[in-house]
Amino acid sequence: KVQTSVNPACVSGKQCSEVMRRQRSGLSQHSASDCASVRLAFFGEEGSYSECAGRSLLRPLIDAEGLQTVSFRSYEDIFRAIEHGTVTCGIVPFETTLGGAMHGHYDLLLQHSGVHILAETDFLIEHCLLGLPGTTREGIKTVLSHSSPLQDCESYLRKWGVATLTSKDTATAAKEIRDQGAT
């Protein structure tokens, strides 16, 4: 198990600002009617670290019925959706403790002037090696994951002598292994 911390930020246009203003004012959880329902954009498959971080950040502010998460295939698409108002806000990682700053995400923030950072959170990630039932550690020849966890675990994987393949995100990698039956 390898631990890293990611520092994602909630990025938004005007609509989500009221939710965060209430948090800073010390107001308690709000219902969907108070916040006009929040649609949170995240990158990747359902269950991705980004979705989990977003839910964790907004949980104290919005009840479960008022929060809808929406998956996107690129961070650029998240920023566009915020600008066009199709989502309320998005969760975007800007740095990790092991990998450092994600400069491309800062570039997107500069390119999309209608989007700004509303809040930051720290989200602890514990990378775990998953496999199909019956898979042994010795039987694993290739590890599939997003580039960030592969980088975080690079020295461990190098010592172990396995090949690596990059996937869109960790949740997609797990889904691909499940669907393809690879070990």
UniProtKB/TrEMBL annotation:
InterPro entries named among the record's database cross-references: Preph_deHydtase
Identification of the protein by name: Prephenate dehydratase domain-containing protein
Keywords of the record: Amino-acid biosynthesis, Aromatic amino acid biosynthesis, Lyase, Phenylalanine biosynthesis
Any GO MF annotation of the entry: prephenate dehydratase activity
Transmembrane intervals: none
PROSITE patterns given in the database record: PREPHENATE_DEHYDR_3
Taxonomic source organism: Noctiluca scintillans
GO CC annotation terms, alphabetical: cytoplasm
Domain of life: Eukaryota
Coiled coil location: none
Signal peptide: none
Pathway, per record: Amino-acid biosynthesis
UniProt domain Prephenate dehydratase: residue ranges: 39-183
Keyword Signal annotated: no
Any GO BP: L-phenylalanine biosynthetic process
Keyword NADP among record annotations: no
